[in-house]
Design goal:
By secondary structure, the chain is mostly beta strands. It has one domain: Beta Barrel (Elongation Factor Tu (Ef-tu), domain 3). It contains 1 helix and 9 strands. The two termini are 22 Å apart.
């Protein structure tokens, strides 16, 4: 299987967990009678989370490369080998345990960028 990619970073080993969550927050308004009524579905929000590990001689280097991308404030293409391209921000990166020799486990969060249906390539 192809590898997960974000901007210039290619995962050497795909994450063990990859989850996409789509959410809309319904909008309500308060009527003159004091009751609340449904108004609209609200904007679609996409959150992508995952967990995995970097291992081998370059485990720490791989994590540092991803951490450097986290410092960027611009969105980019997250390319999943099955689910395709998602234009998003890297909004969370966590080392989930004390690093061991040649092993770093991690958790990430991406948040979809609003693009009006256009995904830059």
């Amino acid at each position: 299987m192809d590898k997960l990619k974000y901007k210039t970073f290619v995962w050497p080993h795909n994450p063990t967990v990859y989850k996409e969550e789509y959410l809309r927050e319904p909008q309500y308004y308060k009527g003159d009678d004091g009751e609340y009524y449904f108004d609209a579905m609200g904007d679609e929000k996409l959150t992508i989370t995952g967990t995995g590990a970097f291992f081998g001689d370059d485990a720490f280097t791989q994590f540092k490369k991803l951490a450097k991308l986290f410092q960027e404030t611009t969105p980019g293409n997250l390319e999943h080998p099955v689910w395709g391209i998602r234009y998003c921000y890297l909004t969370g990166l966590e080392m989930t345990q004390e690093p061991k020799d040649n092993y770093v486990s991690y958790r990430f969060t991406f948040t979809g960028a609003q693009t009006n249906g256009v995904v830059p390539r």
